User: Fold this.
Amino acid sequence: MTTPDTLLHVEDLVVTYPTPGGATTAVDRVTFTIPRGSALALVGESGSGKSTIAHAVVRLLKPTAGRILFDGTDLATLPERRLRPLRPRFQMIFQDPYGSLDPHLTAQDIVAEPLRLSGTRDRTARTRRAAELLDRVGLPASARDRRPSEFSGGQRQRIGIARALASSPDLLVCDEATSALDVSVQARVLELLRELQAETGITYLVIAHNLGLVREISTDVVVLRSGRVVEQGRTADVLASPTEPYTRDLRRAALDPAAIRGRKPRELLHARGRAHTPA
Assistant:
């Protein structure tokens, strides 16, 4: 159900992929709503459908069925010519800060490129705006003419954030945007995202597997397993009192690292999953 405060409403979203053995359903009738200026997180282990949903929301892939209502417009069925003018309003920060930036461009040119594509013809205006954004994400003036290979992972992700902000989007999709970074760098990037939201009122869709991280940035959370929603609600409530065994396992893996010493979270969840009836 949508209201005037709703920016994104995803309803009965289905995404299937063809395989040699027949169609595989990666996302199965997922529904959620994000009010303007809030942050919703999609969480779950690898293969739960999180990134597939993110790519569908920004129409990097076309869903098989369902609706993606962005400010009242259904993106799911729009042809590209009608999507193009809307694209500046929803942007994505990608997981890999090393592979998501053009290695041949300077930081300033990377951030200015979306402005050129969206119709800002004045090169001086593009350069000035790119410099403002790089400064806003904490990169010094001396960094503007450097290429991605000259930056650390955290600095590259800051460039990615500046690039995403160049078109002044209403919705920013963060697809595991801190998972490739060290813990201390993750904290600084999360703080930057919180500051940007407080200043601009931007809306976030956060893709993550770590409930500890989700607790720090999201208002609401949707827990996914094998492409289906198993639990959703206010983040504080879900983390304090998860009702589903799968969510409890995710919470334990995220908030009690000692419990999974020597084992990957996915291995732990698979082992525990055999003891539970699938949701």
Confidence is low (pLDDT under 50) at residues 257-279. The two ends are 24 Å apart (CA to CA). The first helix runs from residue 50 to 57. Residues 6-98+170-273 form a domain with the Rossmann fold fold (CATH 3.40.50.300).
